[in-house]
Design goal:
5-stranded mixed β-sheet, alpha/beta, 5 strands, Ribosomal Protein S5, domain 2, single chain
Length: 119
């Protein structure tokens, strides 16, 4: 699955006006209204602040973990149960020490809550 990137203006708009879903490891922000997207299209951004992790190595590791958790959460779902979406993950400090299986579970729960994955 390919996650296409959002422009900086789209990211800023989603962060400012979007819905927020809190988790222990991240905050998922989605636009109030998704524009018409093609089947299997995901536009996303994974953001880690320098205030959260001062070292670039830690920021990159956090982004990789959340990106892989998203792919893992969506991997087992049938295509007809997926809703194309735009999203921004704002990553928190605890993501590096949290077990990967727990991050995947949190991600799946948040995606179901936001109706990206239909039950």
């Amino acid at each position: 699955m390919i996650i296409k990137s959002l422009s900086s203006s789209q990211i800023a708009l989603i962060i400012k006006t979007g819905r927020a879903y809190n988790s222990g490891s991240f905050v998922l922000k989605t636009p109030v209204r998704n524009e018409e997207l093609e089947k299997d299209e995901f536009f996303g951004a994974f953001i880690v602040s320098k205030k959260v992790f001062s070292k670039a190595v830690d920021r990159n590791k956090a982004k990789r973990r959340i990106r892989e958790a998203f792919k893992e959460a969506v991997k087992g779902v049938k295509k007809e149960k997926l809703t194309p979406a735009s999203f921004v993950f704002l990553i928190k400090k605890g993501v590096v020490k949290t077990p990967f299986a727990e991050i995947v579970q949190e991600t799946k729960q948040i995606l179901v809550k936001d109706y990206i994955i239909k039950q």
